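Handoff note, outgoing to incoming analyst
You'll be picking up this chain. Sequence as last confirmed:
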Amino acid sequence: MEPQISISCCKKDKKRNCLGIILAILLALLLFTIGILLGAALALIVFLNLGAIIVLAIILGLLAALTAIYMLCSKKRNCCS
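Most recent structure output, in case you need it:
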């Protein structure tokens, strides 16, 4: 009997998905910022800095969206899936 050998160029690593962790952190920060925005209606001090908080929320939302798009694009290029 001859041994059956299969040769593949695909390397499957059992590493953690770092982009998923980054996306989760960004979404958590985005939700925290949205919570601050909702609480800003109750506090005058935070209301004075509302512009900076809105800019922070927009930046975090854009980073989360770009990370999600990058994750989707990198999955499509994977030959091993």
